[in-house]
Amino acid sequence: MLKIFSHYFPSHVLQQVVFDALVLFMAVIFAVAAQVRGGAVDWRVIVPSALLFAFAMILLNSAMGLYRPAEGERSTRTTIGRVLISIVVSIPVAFGVFLVLPWNYFASEAMQISVMLLLGLVLLMRAMVNRHWATSMFAPRVLIIGTGADALTVERSLGSPMRSGMEVVGFYAVEGEDSVDVDRGRVLDCKDLLQTVRQLRVNEVIVAVRERRGGVLPIRELLDCKVWGVRVLDLSSFFERVQGQVRIDSLKASWLIYGDGFRQGLARAFVKRCFDLAASSILLLAALPVMAVTALLIALEDGAPIFYRQERVGLGGRVFRVIKFRSMRRDAEKDGKPRWAVSGDDRVTRVGRVIRKLRIDELPQIFNVLKGEMSLVGPRPERPFFVDQLAQEIPFYAVRHCVKPGVTGWAQVRYQYGASVDDAIQKLQYDLYYVKNHTVVLDTLVLFETVRVVLTGEGAN
């Protein structure tokens, strides 16, 4: 659980969360003080109410992806878009909070409007100060062991301090590495690892060297660093913690056998099943009107059938029939040959494009969840034809079948729609992380992230 929490809220993000919570809390306190204008105030009611309001808004902002780094050339536009979506969603939620909870001081409409304006100001401030917090003095300082291709991959994965909240101080060369793929100007000219760690105030050491035999790695010095209090990570642990992946290219079968996680006990299965039944029942009741309208629109545009049943591979490699709203023409695979869905697929109907973008076509799979064939959260089930192909080309692909497939999943909220073998490899790395670490907490976080994906249309195809 701590690993999952630290992935969502590393130190620099935790600073942002605490800052936002304090400002939201003070916004409510200020609004109450302005409303009563020196009158009597029962702060025993106001303070817990303000704390609850701040906590609810932080959860909502997290679900909207406000604390996730925006990457690429459009990062500023992405950040502003997330802020605007968060404001739009936060306002009705906050009004609902004011109406449900018996807070006499929040009964005034002027009071509610003032808090909403302050909420919008806080979220806009988040977009402006994000760079400042990410590059703050509290960002962990990282030293990378190695200078080869793996070291370069680690550096690129971390990116800028604004993106990862971690500052790479340099690279420590080890004996036996022939190539220098990183910037030579950042390779440290030193021999004593522990002394270097102390001088540069390093908080974390990442070992980006695959070959560990023949004295390639300074094992004794790494042990000294760990005893000194510095965290030491190998490649697999680094990618798991920072990117929420179990990387195929840094994975060995022994790590799967002897490593932590991958526990599939009866207690874990029972808790997950209870969670699935409760959450899917609530979701089904809430989604029935949307499903009824969708069925009508599909019938009007392209006639029957409304639903589409297709064989998929589930738990233990067993085949079952998944249920979805039909989003393609009835003759989409008239030649009987399965094919990947691609962007702009001309087989998709007009209604199908909309329901795919909003993920409405997946809603009938709730019935698969209630039957026990699927879970609400888990790896997406693939067709047997593609499973046979991918299992031959991708190592450890069958590991994803040791848990039930899901309507949504960790890979779905972290990666775009998969339409090739390369995409399947990327998604498998997220699926392995989920299989290794899945808990009710992670399932809940994935459901929150799914709300953001649906609202923003990320990864739809």
Give me the Rg, rounded.
25 Å
Strand content: 5-15%
**Total strands:** 8
> What class would the helix/strand composition place it in?
alpha/beta
Helical content, roughly? 40-55%
Average pLDDT = 76
Could you name the ranges where pLDDT drops below 50 across 5 or more consecutive residues?
131-135
Helix and strand string, N-terminal first? HHHHHEHHEHEHEHHHEEHHEHEHHH
Note the gap between the termini: 32 Å
Helical segment tally?
Answer: 18
What's the arrangement of strands in the largest beta sheet?
2-1-3-4
The outline comes out as globular
Largest sheet: 4 strands, parallel
What does this protein look like?
There is one protein chain. The chain has 18 helices and 8 strands. The protein is an alpha/beta fold. Strand 5 (307-313) and strand 6 form a beta hairpin. Helix 12 (266-302) runs antiparallel to helix 13 (350-357). The longest helix has 37 residues, at 266-302.
How are the elements arranged and paired?
Layout: H1 2-8, H2 11-36, H3 43-63, H4 75-100, H5 109-134, E1 141-145, H6 149-158, H7 161-164, E2 167-172, H8 193-199, E3 204-207, H9 219-228, E4 231-233, H10 235-243, H11 253-258, H12 266-302, E5 307-313, E6 319-325, H13 350-357, H14 365-371, E7 375-377, H15 384-393, E8 406-408, H16 410-414, H17 421-437, H18 440-456
Parallel strand pairs: 1-2, 1-3, 3-4, 7-8
Antiparallel strand pairs: 5-6
Helix pairs in contact: 2-3, 2-5, 3-4, 4-5, 6-10, 12-13
